[in-house]
Amino acid sequence: MKIQSSKQEPKKTYFSRKLRIWGRYGIITFALLFALFPIVWIILTSFKTPSEVIHSPPIWIPREPSFNHYVGALKLRGLTAFKNSLIIASASTVLSLLLGSMGAYSIAKWGTGGKLLPLSLLAMRMLPPIAVVFPVFLIFKTLQWIDTYRAVILMHLTFNLPYSIWMLRGFFAEIPKEVEESARIDGCSELGVFGKITLPLAAPGLIATGIFCFIFSWNEYPFALVLTRRNAITLSVVLPGYFGSQMVFWGEVGALSTIAILPLFILGILVKKHLTRGLTMGAVK
User: Fold this and answer.
1) 188-198, pLDDT tens digit by residue?
2) Is the separation of the CB atoms in 201 and 101 below 8 Å?
3) What CA–CA distance (Å, rounded) separates 146 from 121?
4) The domain 70-280 belongs to what CATH superfamily?
5) Distance between alpha carbon 175 and the CA centroid of its chain, in Å?
6) What backbone torsions phi and psi does residue 13 show, to the nearest 5 degrees?
7) Do 90 and 157 form a contact (C-beta atoms < 8 A)?
8) How far apart are CA 86 and CA 94, in angstroms?
């Protein structure tokens, strides 16, 4: 009896292990389908004809794919909004990395502001934008900055900069001091050490931080809604305008949503290696 039970135990262990593995795969597959289905559906909707969009039961695959919705979306302020979003997101990201890298380097290497400054910066990032959007609107209205790039860029920079400093501080702190000290011995100035040694070594961290800053600025809604009218309007403001009280332009919604997704998707593919390295930088001591 003991011999039979000992033979059955490995089989039970094997099947239980296989069951756990397949269970994990099943959960991951369900979560993946749950997350990707809306994206795939909105992309397919952008290629459907108007009759296919409202057809019941729904038509999953377009029978006659068409780009008419893309043409219509670009004509309905879509092209202007895409250009504005690209300019605002790029400018705020570059400024956040430029100013944030200098602030983070000062905090990481020289302890500027003491131990409470990094926590204070992170607390600023946690402030809800809606809490300050109306006072900011009154200030910018007095300055005649409403519906300008600089107004939206400045507010995005205000919220991106604390996050940029917080993130880059950790990356700079991981760089060995001996590397920088050897550069100083060789006659490199402090600015040269920062630009030629520290920044290249922290490039993955800069890329990871820049992507998150770009995503925040690209998707931001409250400031773009309140501070823009026509000239500086962004995709996040134009897209809800396609939902009317009597009808919804589902084809144009799908087309403009696809256009809004593409830059982030392409950016993620281009910097995939650096992004993965930047997110894991400092995780292993």
Assistant:
1) 888 888 988 89
2) no
3) 27
4) MetI-like (1.10.3720.10)
5) 25
6) -65, -40
7) no
8) 12
